[in-house]
C-alpha cells in the first residue's frame, strides 16, 4: 500500500465515528474522494456518495462509516459517568480500557473502571452489563463532571492503531472504516482503468444500529448492482472453536476477499465478481449466507423493488473489540477485485436472473 493510501486509511481509523456521530469521519472520506470523483453529495444524516460518470451500467460500492461505542447515560453524585451502548458493544472487553468522550467542547479522556483483582472473589467473577459499568474522568463531584460532559456525548476506545508483523494491522473501530476505504479506492482504480460504467462509492451511516443509512441511500440511489463491503469473521485464530468454523470451512486473514453466497446475494452479481476474480488472478474465499448477511446489503437488496446486491467480506479477527486485526493485503485485493468487476460490467445490460 503506497504512502498516500495508507495515510488515508490511518486517518479514517483514527477519526472516531460512532453511530449517530459520524460527521468527523465522513468529512475525511469526502475530502479524499473529492480529489477524483466527478461529484460528491451528502444527505441530511451524513451519508456520502461519490460518483465517476460513464456511459455504461451503474455500479455502486458501499461501506459503512460508523463504529460501535458507548454513550453518556448519566452522571452520579461522585462524578462518575454512567454509560450505555452504541451498537453491539461487548461488555466483556470494555472494562479497564482508555476511552475518549467526544463533547461539543472537545475530547475528555477517561477510563472504564475495573475493580482490582485483589478486591474481588475471582471465583465469582462475572461480566457486568455495560449499563452497570462506569467511566472515571477524574471528576470528584456531579457538578464538576457536568462541566465537562453532557448526557448523550459519544464515547469510543482510544483510537490507537498498531502495525503488527507483515501486513497485519490492529486497533478499535476497524469495523468498518476499512470498507469505506475499499469503496473509495475501488472507485479511484475503476476510473483509472477506464471503465465505461458509472461507478458510485458510498459511505453510509448508522449501520451498527440497524442498517439505517443504507435504507436512506437505497431509497435514493438506483444502481444496476451494489456491493456492500464489510468485515467478516476470520476463523483462523486459536479462540475460534471447530464448531464455529462451520465444519472444514475457514476464512483466513490474507486469504483474499470473501464472496457471500445465498439469500441477499444476487446470483448474477456473485457470478460476475467471481469471474472477475478468476480473470484477474485474485484469490477469493466463499461464505454461506443462507438467511441474511448482517450487512448493509440486507437493506440495499430490497430497495426500489429490488437491487442486485452482494456482500463482499474483509476478514477480521476479534470483531467489536479494541484489538480488531486485519490484513491490508486483503484490502488491496478487494479494491482490485471491485475495480476489475466495474471494468467488466461495462459490457453488461444488467444483472437480472434469466427466467
What does this molecule look like?
Helix content is 26%, strand content 26%. The protein is α+β, with helices and mostly antiparallel strands. It has 2 domains: 3-67 and 173-345, 3-Layer(aba) Sandwich (Aminopeptidase), CATH 3.40.630; 77-157, Beta Barrel (Elongation Factor Tu (Ef-tu), domain 3). α1 (3-13) packs antiparallel against α4. The radius of gyration is 21 Å and the shape is globular. The mean pLDDT is 96.
Distance between the amino and carboxyl termini: 43 Å
Low-pLDDT runs of 5+ residues are none
Strand order of the biggest β-sheet: 1-2-12-3-13-16-14-15
Percent helix among the residues? 25-40%
Please give the CATH architecture of the largest domain.
3-Layer(aba) Sandwich
CATH domain class of the largest domain:
Alpha Beta
Largest pleated sheet? 8 strands, mixed
Strand content: 25-35%
Instruction: Give me the CATH fold name of the largest domain.
Output: Aminopeptidase
By DSSP (H or I, 4+ residues per run), the number of helices equals: 8
- Residue-averaged pLDDT, rounded? 96
CATH superfamily of the largest domain: Zn peptidases
General shape: globular
Query: What is the total domain count?
Result: 2
Amino acid at each position: 500500500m503506497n504512502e498516500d493510501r495508507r495515510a488515508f486509511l490511518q486517518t479514517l481509523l483514527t477519526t472516531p465515528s460512532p453511530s449517530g456521530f459520524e460527521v468527523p469521519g465522513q468529512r475525511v472520506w469526502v475530502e479524499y474522494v473529492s480529489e477524483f470523483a466527478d461529484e460528491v453529495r451528502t444527505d441530511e444524516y451524513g451519508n456520502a456518495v461519490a460518483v465517476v460518470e460513464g456511459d455504461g451500467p451503474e455500479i455502486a460500492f458501499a461501506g459503512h462509516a460508523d463504529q460501535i461505542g458507548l454513550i453518556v447515560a448519566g452522571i452520579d453524585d461522585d462524578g462518575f459517568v454512567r454509560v450505555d451502548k452504541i451498537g453491539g458493544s461487548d461488555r466483556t472487553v470494555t472494562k479497564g480500557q482508555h476511552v475518549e468522550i467526544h463533547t461539543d467542547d472537545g475530547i475528555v479522556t477517561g477510563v472504564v473502571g475495573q475493580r482490582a483483582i485483589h478486591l474481588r472473589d475471582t471465583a465469582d467473577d462475572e461480566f457486568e452489563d455495560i449499563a452497570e459499568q462506569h467511566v472515571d474522568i477524574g471528576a470528584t463531584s456531579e457538578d464538576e463532571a457536568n462541566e465537562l460532559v453532557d448526557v448523550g456525548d459519544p464515547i469510543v476506545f482510544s483510537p490507537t492503531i498498531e502495525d503488527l508483523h507483515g501486513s497485519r494491522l490492529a486497533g478499535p473501530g476497524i469495523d468498518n472504516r476499512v470498507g469505506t476505504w475499499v469503496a473509495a479506492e475501488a472507485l479511484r482504480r475503476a476510473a483509472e482503468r477506464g471503465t465505461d460504467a458509472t461507478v458510485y462509492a458510498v459511505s453510509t451511516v448508522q449501520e451498527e444500529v440497524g442498517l439505517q443509512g443504507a435504507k436512506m441511500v437505497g431509497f435514493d440511489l438506483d444502481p444496476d448492482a451494489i456491493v456492500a463491503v464489510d468485515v467478516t469473521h476470520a476463523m483462523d485464530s486459536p479462540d475460534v472453536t471447530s464448531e464455529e468454523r462451520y465444519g472444514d470451512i475457514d476464512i483466513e486473514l490474507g486469504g483474499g476477499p470473501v464472496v457471500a453466497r445465498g439469500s441477499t446475494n444476487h446470483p448474477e452479481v456473485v457470478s460476475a465478481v467471481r469471474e472477475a476474480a478468476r480473470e484477474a488472478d485474485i484469490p477469493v474465499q466463499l461464505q454461506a449466507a443462507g438467511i441474511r448477511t448482517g450487512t448493509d446489503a440486507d437493506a440495499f437488496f430490497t430497495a426500489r423493488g429490488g437491487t442486485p446486491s452482494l456482500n463482499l467480506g474483509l476478514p477480521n479477527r476479534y470483531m467489536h473489540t479494541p484489538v480488531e486485526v486485519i490484513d491490508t493485503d486483503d484490502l488491496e485485493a478487494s479494491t482490485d477485485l471491485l475495480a476489475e468487476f466495474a471494468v467488466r460490467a461495462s459490457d453488461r445490460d444488467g444483472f437480472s436472473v434469466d427466467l
